[in-house]
Amino acid sequence: MSEYRLAEKPALDALTAMGYVALHPEAAMLMRQEANRVLLRPVLIEALQALNDGLGVEDAEAIYSDLSTLSDNEEWQRRLRGAYSRRLKGKAKDEPVVLIDFKRPDRNRYHVVRQFKVEAQRSRIADLVVFVNGIPLVVIEAKCPMKAADRSGQAFEQIKQYERDIPRLFYPNSFNIVTDGMKTLYGATGAPAKFYAPWPDPWPRKRDEFPDDLSKDLWCLLEPSRLLDMLAHFIVFETDPDNGHRVKKVCRYQQFRAVNKAVNRVAEGTKKKGLIWHTQGSGKSLTMVFLALKLKTHLTLDAPTLQNPNILVLTDRIDLDDQIAKTFVACGLPNPKQAASVGELREAVARGGSGQILMSTIFKFQGSKEPIPNSEDWIVLVDECHRTQEKDLGAFLSATLPDARFFGFTGTPIKKADKDTYARFSEPGETYLDKYGIDDAVRDGATVPILYEGRKTEWSINESQIDILFDRWFVDMPDEKREKLKQKGVSLALIAKHPERIRLIARDIWEHFKQTCRPDGFKAQIVAIDRESVVLYRAALADVIAGDLIKDGMAEADAAGKADRMIGCVFSKAQTDGYPSEDPAIESVRQQLTAYFLDDDGEKAAKKAFKGSTDEPSFLIVCDKLLTGFDAPNEHVMYLDKPLREHGLLQAIARTNRTCSIKRPDGTSVDKPHGRIVDYIGVTQNLEDALSSYRADDVQNALTDLDLLRRDLRKTHAEFMRLKRLMGLDRMDEKAAAYAVEKLVSDGREDDWFELQRLGRHFVRTYGDLSPDPTILEFTEDMKWTATFLRLAQQAITKDESLDHLTYSGKIREMLEEHVRATGLSTTVRLRNITDPDFKDDFQTEGQTEEAQKESFIRKAAELKRVTRELVDKNPAQYGRFSERVLEIIRRFEEGQIAAGEGLKAFEDLTDSIESEAGAHTELGMDERAFSILRIMEPHALDADHGALQAIAVEVGDLYATAQASQPSWFFMDGYKKELRRDVRKVLRPLELTDANAVRDEIENYAVHAYAGPE
Fold it and tell me: Which of 383, 519, 691, 991 is the S-S candidate for 315 at Cβ 3.0 to 4.6 Å?
């Protein structure tokens, strides 16, 4: 009831205040006709007739039937946006059919239904469903803010469960919302929980115009005109270039805000430019896609300036041109075209026409002074616009397109003194049309913060003391050679490439990497001062890694090969690389430059491998390349040995700011806590000078000193220890404290537990973030106690495996495993799988105390919840009943209906049933996957001959196995899937099922996972 009172009812009230009509579930059921349908039939038919002049009831009924069978989310979106036509009664050709009036929101019908039940093999009830014209566009999961389980992601799990079990509700879906009445997050259909995000800014309104956060959040996402705007212009399906998967993406609030500011400026027609700074890693390329999409289609507004504009997208680098072009194409934007040459670009621009989207580099305007006709028809989007003003490029662009509208985009702030960029892209008196800065992105979780640390200060280089450093570091060199080097000129690069310096830093990098990145599978970039130092670092690092591997017992040749594969180099080629030299040192370097140079295909392969999950490579060594535009979320550390300044520094360090979650082999995952810059050359010694040319509030948190993290660790540790003492947990071991907290929670002190849990998690996470910093050592014992206690308490309170331990970094987890064994807590903490030979030990309860039986019950509850959850993910039809049985036994225990011993007996029986089910296919002589298909079919064909049913299941399995063998990516091929559905339906026909389509869809949902990828 509290869930309804605290979350569901306030959400319902907020929606009705915005004009949504609340329908009682029974009234909605009558409109749906059948409980397994999701469209509100009379609402849709009435809307169709109102929005399409002269549309008769018969045609409206046919359209309803057509939409009822549409099972593709992307195709639904196309039709909702207007790409839908069909042959209407009395017409000689197909006519367009309008499903939603985007320009007149008041002409549509808006409803919300609570407790919306959809019948399926595993029926589900959604808390709230939002409809436009009888079509379900948004599902809202409302959870009670007081329940601990809901704070650990249960709402997201339920959305995932609904998407899997009742997919019909999500075929037309735009996005989903989860809310506990205080915090609200939204995410695209099918998105993992990590991609759900808040919408904090209600632009163009102010936060104080709303009575509470829930009202503000729901207005931002669901106010009718905003919802239609998002549906029309801010949802795209992008093809992942690495795996070919189609990924649905919904805009973030800063993208919605920036695009609408720019489009409104074009529509008004009075101002002709704007500057947009969205910090790197926050989706700037996608913002440009959304802007181009709205400028092209502008479904929600009309203006003379938006009739069918030409759009020119410019970058200052070929690789960025390719990157943005691929993003546009991947998102299905209409007719984007890359201009391959200067002549092609000028011809296309001069030709004019309407509705063109051209992509090119700014350099193709070099020397262009003649204005083209009709330049007012062009809207120019310039990426990294601060760089386009150099070498008169901005002037040439202006001369060619004097009357065009210009919108500049940048991932870094503009310098205070950069008058050219402001003049070109900002209106008088305006700096940024829209700003989404470094702090904004970190606060929203769009990027991670960047920490920096200076290492080996005795080897850092002060440029003003180069001569002194040279005499000190090259003192052992023969006088003649030293003088010869001096005559050539003592440079920063010469000092930086001192062999001993390179060797020592390579050793330091490897030791640092082993402790910060390697335990969790993250990777690192090394930025060297020039091409020669790239290969010098490569050789030194390979020696260090190989030596370490040999110490660990690897054969020398294998160690050398492994070290070699762990390092990649990306640099440009020079003509001199192939020249012979009489100087052995120069000759050696040139040979290495030739050996390790990667051509375009090799570079692409290296970048792809770096983004992959293996440790080959773990390092990319660069000097100039990959410092901008390169996006590898798993890059955790940048080792910096090159003096970078201003924009170059900001762009380079931002390679580490992408969010990333690494999946471990055991199925758990760890999130990248931050990016890390390790400075060997002294850049950060002069950081204030490097950033002083920017506005202070634009760059104040570009990098965070480790000193702040050290202070944070001390503060959080003190707060945790204080609350622990106030709750009476002092001098208790972890197990005793966990059961003491369980009792406190049952006595109503849940809020104290939440606060202790929050502080404890922060303490452990901060400790891990700082490691291997020596300041953590005094906190190690308290950290071990805290982390183990949090997991035990989570198990005791929720009968589930704690998320804390699973999301800790590898270096922390390894430490904890040793700790729990040393303290004798391993029997409680270390959860086993059902296949573990010792899994059934807990069922032997004879002679055990009630407390020991309770411990065993808690552990078995956590283990079986995990086991059944994994099995249900494989096949809900086969294993769903086991998962529900686990939850039922836990519920009865918590309500005092059964004792721990009885619960363990019930778990033992359940375990036997799971094992029997898992091996049942062998008794029937069936393939495991075909047997799973049989289990899907059985409830729908109770009267069928079981032998015939088995044969049909095998035949259906063979269809999908053949698809897997011939087309490993069949599940992304709509045409191929359609053929398979038709073939499956034919095979099912002899069963004379009442709803063969529903059975076929269930089988396909299973097959998409079971027959995915190469065999």
Answer: 383
Contact 207, 57 (CB under 8 A): no
Q: Strand 567-570: give its sheet, edge to edge.
A: 567-570, 619-622, 523-527, 635-640, 675-679, 450-454, 704-705
- 824 φ, ψ (degrees, to nearest 5): 75, 20
Q: How far is the C-alpha of 203 from the C-alpha of 254, rounded, in Å? A: 9
Give the 3-state secondary structure of residue 114.
Answer: strand
pLDDT digits (tens, 9 = 90+) for 866-892: 788 777 767 777 787 888 888 888 888
- Residue 522: its pLDDT value, please? 94
For 79-110, the DSSP string reads HHTT--EEEPTT-SSEEE--S--SS-GGGS-E
252-444 homologous superfamily: Tandem AAA-ATPase domain (3.40.50.10810)
Query: What does the alpha-carbon distance between residue 256 and residue 230 come to, in Å, rounded to a whole number?
Result: 8
Residue 153: CB atoms within 10 A of its CB come to 14
According to DSSP, residue 360 is labeled E
Between CA 548 and CA 568 the distance in angstroms is 19
How far apart CA 538 and CA 522 sit, in angstroms, is 19
Q: Cβ-count burial of 397 within 10 angstroms (0-12 exposed, 13-18 middle, 19+ buried)?
A: buried
Q: Hey, what are 807's tokens?
A: 């999301």
**Count of H helices and E strands in the chain?**
41, 26
What is residue 1's predicted lDDT score, i.e. its pLDDT?
44
pLDDT at 802: 53
Does domain 1-239 correspond to CATH entry 3.90.1570.50? yes
Rounded Cα distance between 411 and 416, Å, is 16
Domain at 492-697+803-845+874-908: CATH architecture: 3-Layer(aba) Sandwich (3.40)
Alpha helices (H) in 406-454, listed in sequence order: 419-425, 438-444
- Taking a C-beta distance cutoff of 8 angstroms, is the pair 970, 976 a contact? yes
Report the chain's C-alpha Rg in angstroms: 31
Q: Is the pLDDT of residue 804 over 80?
A: no
Cβ contact 401:350 at 8 Å: no
